[in-house]
């Protein structure tokens, strides 16, 4: 049976660069940085005191949504709901007109409701064992984002969460794509990822791993993927949500189409719980599987939105994996950039934000730059689009996401052709 075609019809985001797709994209292309001193709690004791916060967040704010409902959600779920509301409005679908069992939700998160866990643990210790909130578990569980989104529109199609650390959003989008591609009784999927781990425990844990930048006096220049002067990644928060539809369903309702999702590859490193395989074998496998799924050759890919977190091990491993996957073409016309140089690392939400950036790059014929790439690491010797966005038409883009635990997820999109 022929695979059904899947298209991207709606986009929504909340991240350190903006609370909407428009704000995010304009600031990304303007080469602005979302990295600032962290301000939601006292960071004085921490080695890293900078990151990507969603500034002045007070909960979900969207026409027709009751803001009181936000109080029953952890911050990560609030971000996901805000992104979903924007993506659904953007795609123009009226779910009331369609069978609810044919519309589903798959949203990933690497950590879930960490803030709620910390809050209720402190409350238990200070006020007593019987004073924890009855909303604790419904707020902290990683599937709360997908669950709350489905409840808003009463959707009864496939509904679950994906947890693959920093690959979670891309894994979720890939699984939603597979669900539509196979024809599993659904026509529409809301998908992506959300994360809100900029908390005292979250920051402390990543500081202990020695993975974060300590360029505290120069936050805007701290995220430096593929640069010799990098000193770690930046902890950030937010959500990136997409609406995927089966092509004929989208056509019948006259939906606008950002891009066609044509390939998904998932693999494991089988190497280490936090470090990437230095040979990049798992990443190579995921990229090759995405290409195979799409029926494409490496030379057909124009652009890669790299995982590119600004760590030495990760940057070098990804560079090597790209070279193995693309051969001579890796240096012969393939363009690459890391949008994490602008946003920091949104962990389980990062793949969703990267998907949005890649789809808009395809729409507007402009490729985001890798900020702060002023002293390229000689071991990262590919075309990483330094400093300035590049005006260029692209037809095919690959999104790379790699996570702790050795989880790899790669997505391949192409310019839609009717």
Beta fraction: 15-25%
Q: How many angstroms does the end-to-end distance come to?
A: 21 Å
Poorly predicted runs of 5 or more residues: none
Widest sheet: strand ordering? 5-4-6-7-1-8-14-13-9-10
Number of helices: 12
Instruction: Write the element-wise H/E pattern from the N-terminal end onward.
Output: EHEEHEHHHEHEHEHEHEHEHHEEEE
Beta strands, count: 14
User: Strand count, sense and closure of the main sheet?
Assistant: 10 strands, mixed
Question: Structural class, please?
Answer: alpha/beta
Arithmetic mean pLDDT: 97
User: What is the global morphology?
Assistant: globular
The helicity comes to 25-40%
**Backbone CA Rg:** 20 Å
